[in-house]
Amino acid sequence: MGRENPIQLKSVDAPWAVEARGLVKTFGGFRAVDGVDLKVRAGTIYGVLGPNGAGKTTTIRMLATLLRPDAGTATIFGYDVVKEPQIVRQLIGVTGQYASVDETLSATENLIIFSRLLGLSHTEARRKAAELLEEFSLTEAAKRPLKKFSGGMRRRLDLAASLIAQPPLIFLDEPTTGLDPRTRAQMWETIRRLVKTGSTVVLTTQYLDEADQLADRIAVIHHGGVVAEGTVDELKASVGRSSLQLRVEEPQTIERARRCVEQVLRVQSIVSPEAGKITAPMADADKVTDLLIALREAGIRLSEMSVQKPTLDEVFLTLTGDNVTESPSSDEMDVEVSQG
Amino acid sequence: MNQPITPVSQRQLRNHTSFGQSVRNSFTMAYRGILKIRRTPEQLFDVTFQPIIFTLMFTYIFGGAISGNVQSYLPVIIPGILVQTVITTSVVTGVQLREDMDKGVFDRFKSLPIARIAPLAGALLADTVRYTIATVLTFTMGYIMGYRPGGGLSHVAIAAVLVIVCAWAISWIFAFFGVIARTASSVQGISMIILFPLTFLSNAFVPVKTMPHWLQWFVNINPISHLVTAVRNLANTGTIGNDLAISLIGAAVAVAIFAPLTVRAYMRRA
Questions:
Q1: 3-state secondary structure B109-176
Q2: Contact B151, B234 (CB under 8 A)
Q3: Which residues neighbour B40 within 8 Å (Cβ) at sequence distance 6 or greater?
Q4: pLDDT digit string, tens, across residues B47-75
Q5: A297 and A322: one domain?
Q6: Which residues contact B161 (CB under 8 A, 6 or more apart)?
Q7: DSSP A106
Q8: Residues of chain A with C-beta less than 8 angstroms from the C-beta of B40
Q9: B215's torsion region: left (phi>0), alpha (psi -120 to 50) or beta?
Q10: Which of A4-8, A85-89, A234-238, B223-227 has the lowest mean pLDDT?
């Protein structure tokens, strides 16, 4: 079967939904995207994270055939975005940052027009529109013009429109920007369900918790380039280790506690005497047992103990902060904070 | 949404768009244009009120001065007003195209596997509805004011079709500005600068004999004059002459020049 149709062989062999190498896009003299590499495995959620103006949207627009790259190559399921754009368009759904639906028309009319354009017959288009409106709980508002829609309803319709052809790859450009927390959670749920049906989702976001919640892998984009890439845990680990926080019951024992910590863990610790708190990087979790035993033997009573993982916020700030050279790790940032 | 998607390997994919699909996509886009007109009827202000107000105004202001009385001016002015109104309406095509292309929905059209030309062709197609409304209203106004075309209903219908076809051809010029301009208001501005000399430096409102010689030269080669004369001949006497042929050739030339230019500029942006 595969021999009769060479295209089939080609795509079976492509486990990558997106493969981009050295993408460049220049606007005037400004390099909005400057050599971006991305690899997205089929069937996963991939987060493209970055501050405003980092080049996220431009990257997505190039992958979605809306912009022609000035340099570099990109393939979608093995099909080149420049040479085979019409095939790529059959495989993707795009939901833009600004609602890409017709404001003057009703939700039903929008979906029917998009369905007709995608080759559905009149009755099929009607059925599909009704089905999607039901799915996204927009049935009641179906006949109203979109001008009267809330931001959340518009985004839902926008996403619904991207799903008409059930594309295997969906680009979502900041799908939840400007949505209230409840609508945002609904959007997340929808995205998770999409992936369960076999779709691949590439989403851009400036919200760290969104990437943390949804994405299997993340690329952090800054000044038009990928500055870090990996799973959420990998990214966190790359920036800082977990830190151990201890609070002593009697403030006068804090100096002895600190010596104990430094002897057992063999690390520098930070002391905030007024809070009775010691913070130390925790490289080896196993040694914490030794530390606790040592503290008991020294007669130091603890009132609190906790382990703090680095947050994605720290990762983000470390990677994209403009004074990266001044604060290369979260440990040093902590020092600055406690001293200042 | 809960059924599994078709894997990429089991999809039939083609990188080119067939002619049949291009036509179907264009008609769907035209359907969208007509829906938009229905949803925002205020868009039809120009095509409804311009024929009514201009016909009333011009007829009663110039009627006595040019033809002695209103009644004998009607066969002169109605075809003139008709051509002027319908051609002016075609400017809207360019303005709306520009507005449309700036909207988010255009991104979706561009990301769909449809014929690239469909949004442009659809817009031009949908606007023939506007020309038809303007045409019918102008003739109706004339009829109410006492205009009885000698050519009979069938020739009036041919004249109407001729005007709509020519307006469609000219709308390519404005569509071109719509595609290359940066803002919708600049499209309006450029188009009006072209349109005013073309419609007023013609035989639409006054006899050419009354103009200075150098101006007569332009008026006589102005394709709008030929279109006006062709409509007058058709509606008033039911005759088909050279002017009809010249109008159609002019229309064809406009399309031959501006359709490829527009499409090329549009594709570069699309």
A1: HHHCCCCCCHHHHHHHHHHHHHHHHHHHHHHHHHHHCCCCCCCHHHHHHHHHHHHHHHHHHHHHHHHH
A2: yes
A3: A104
A4: 888 889 988 998 999 888 888 888 899 99
A5: yes
A6: none
A7: B
A8: 104
A9: alpha
A10: A4-8
pLDDT computed for residue A251 by the predictor? 83
Maximum distance among all Cα pairs of chain B, rounded to whole angstroms: 79
Residue ending a domain, choose from A186, A210, A230: A230
Domain residues for the domain of A191 are: 6-230
List of chain A residues whose C-beta atoms are within 8 Å of the C-beta of residue B8: 11, 14, 42, 77, 91, 168
- Judge whether A329 and A318 are in contact, CB under 8 Å: yes
Q: What is the pLDDT of residues B181-200, one digit of tens each?
A: 888 889 888 888 988 888 89
- Domain residue ranges in chain B: 22-269
Residues A251 and A112 in one domain: no
Of A87, A102, A119, the CB nearest to B105: A102
Which pLDDT score, from 0 to 100, does residue A15 have?
83
pLDDT in tens, B98-123: 888 888 888 889 899 999 889 898 99
**B2 Cα to chain A: minimum distance (Å):** 6
Tell me the ipTM for this assembly: 0.82
Are residues B36 and A102, on separate chains, in Cβ contact within 8 Å? yes
For the four alpha carbons of B198, B199, B202 and B206, in that order, the dihedral sign comes to: negative
List CB contacts of A315: < 8 A, sequence separation 6 or more: A208, A220, A228, A235, A236, A238, A239
Mutate to test the interface with B, among A86, A158, A186 (most CBs of B within 10 A): A86
Residues A113 and A86 reside in one and the same domain: yes
10 Å Cβ neighbour count for A241? 17
Whether residue A1 is contained in a domain is answered as: no
Same structural domain, A271 and A214 = no
Q: What is the mean pLDDT of residues A99-124?
A: 91
Given an 8 Å threshold on Cβ–Cβ distance, is A117 in contact with B105?
no
Domain boundary among A171, A196, A230: A230
Report yes or no: A168 and B7 within 8 Å, Cβ to Cβ: yes
Give residue B207's Cα distance to chain centre.
25
Residue A253 shares a structural domain with residue A279: yes
Same domain, A129 and A258: no
Q: How many CB pairs under 8 A join A and B?
A: 112
For chain A, the domain total comes to 2
Output DSSP code: residue A22. Answer: E
Residue whose token pair is 């042929």:
B245
What is the rounded CA–CA span in Å between residue B121 and residue A248? 76
Enumerate the β-bridge partners of residue A93.
A170
Would strands A92-95 and A169-173 be described as parallel, antiparallel, or unpaired?
parallel
- Residue-wise burial string across A25-61, b where 16 or more C-beta atoms lie within 10 A, e elsewhere: beeeeebbbbebebebebbebbbbbbeeebbbbbbbb
Please report, to the nearest 10 degrees, the dihedral formed by the alpha carbons of residues B261, B264, B266, B270 taken in order: 180
A160 in the same domain as A263: no
